[in-house]
Amino acid sequence: MISFEEADTEEKITCLHMTFYHPSQKDQTMFSCLNFCRREQVRADEVAKFGRDSNVCHYNLMDTRVSRIQFSLQFYRKLNSSEFCFEIKNMSKKTKLMVDHTELGYLNKIDLPWKCIICFGDYQILAETQEGASVDYFEIYLHLSEVPILQECLSSLQPVPETGISSPFFPSQGKSPTEIDENE
Question: What residues does each domain of the chain span?
Fold first, then answer.
């Protein structure tokens, strides 16, 4: 029996949460091959590929409008740093890939921001990286959204009034200014 002091330390694994949305997801089966709400462990030296070709891609989208390989994600560690990141590469010759406000053409790649929205065609994916320390593995955790991700993200950005206070207790908020005569 191994003593408490000699037991291996459990490493926290970097996890990429990806929330998918497509406007026709209720009528069609484009996400039928994805395992939602289950963490999948991926070896650090593997490239995670998303597309419709099940012989090449581990994450399959069952849609003829999706390229054989739509995009890939490569896990890496930054030079002279302990920080782990993902690099996203557009593998589609026909469809541009949008990562936040950056458009990627075929074979273009960039570092995936810690939180971003990936779009191609009618697909919307919210990607969020949860930091970890493992050098051997990373995890991908897929989710399905019932509402458009772009709409959800925009609605969460509520405007803050000039006073800096956003509260229903201030009844003057939202009303137009009224002119009052000095003599009243």
Answer: 15-147
Which range is least confidently modeled, 9-13, 49-53, 63-67, 147-151?
9-13
Give the range among 46-55, 74-83, 97-106 with minimum mean pLDDT.
Answer: 74-83
User: Residues 112, 104: contact at Cβ < 8 Å?
Assistant: no
Contact 158, 167 (CB under 8 A): no
Report the distance separating Cα 1 and Cα 140, nearest Å: 33
In whole angstroms, give the CA distance from residue 31 to residue 111: 25
Alpha-carbon gap, residue 57 to 52, rounded angstroms:
7
Domain spanning 15-147, CATH architecture: Sandwich (2.60)
CA dihedral sign, ordered 76, 78, 86, 71? negative
* 168 Ramachandran zone, left/alpha/beta (phi>0; psi -120 to 50): alpha
Q: Tokens for 87, please give them.
A: 């690099």
Q: How far apart are CA 129 and CA 111, in angstroms?
A: 12
Per-residue pLDDT averaged across 46-57, rounded? 96
CB atoms within 10 A of CB 159: 5
CA dihedral 133, 107, 52, 16 (to 10 degrees): 20
Tokens of 27: 């009528």
Asked if 39 and 133 touch (Cβ cutoff 8 Å), the reply is no
